[in-house]
């Protein structure tokens, strides 16, 4: 049994794609462009504003208007950060299992703190989490191990006794680099890179509730 279970946020703990897609489509509306279906944007959600602007506007950081559109996107997203966002089915059961067994759980995300904390508060999980590490909490973000190491310090936990759960290759890279066991979730956003089987995760799960079994709580 693990002492702590740590989750990536977007695409692992919460389905944030609908609100991120809505922010992107508000930008497109400003340009008199038709909306892009959320399903088409979903695979890019784990890569944040950079992924959304690339997928929805074919815009990249080298574009001279990138910074302006980035700030407009973030403004729209911040204003309606938790309208359609929901926790993935099965996550509540995993959290309940952690708490029954006396194991800590927390969030380690690349999402900036100014979005992470309000979102978790609105979802109702901020006070339950034993730690919340955002993309700007540590010196480097995932796939570097520093956010995972910070989470261990906050929990006073040994990395080898922690399980990290994510839906992106960089989640698995960060967890492994920190010495944690890792779980890759098939229900997440996954992106369009290497197949999930090639990420090197210790475990693959199709449903969130299976995380409890991997953690030794099932």
Automatic annotation (TrEMBL):
EC assignment: 3.1.3.18
* Record pathway: Organic acid metabolism; glycolate biosynthesis; glycolate from 2-phosphoglycolate: step 1/1
User: What Pfam families does the database record attribute to this sequence?
Assistant: HAD_2 (PF13419)
A GO BP term here is: DNA repair
Entry's Gene Ontology molecular function annotations: metal ion binding; phosphoglycolate phosphatase activity
Provide GO CC annotations from the record: cytosol
Q: What SUPFAM superfamilies does the record tag this protein with?
A: HAD-like
The record's keywords, sorted A to Z, are:
Carbohydrate metabolism, Hydrolase, Magnesium, Metal-binding
**Catalytic reactions on record:** 2-phosphoglycolate + H2O = glycolate + phosphate
Q: What does this protein do?
A: Specifically catalyzes the dephosphorylation of 2-phosphoglycolate. Is involved in the dissimilation of the intracellular 2-phosphoglycolate formed during the DNA repair of 3'-phosphoglycolate ends, a major class of DNA lesions induced by oxidative stress.
Q: Write down the PANTHER family for this protein, in alphabetical order.
A: PHOSPHOGLYCOLATE PHOSPHATASE
Q: What is this protein called?
A: phosphoglycolate phosphatase
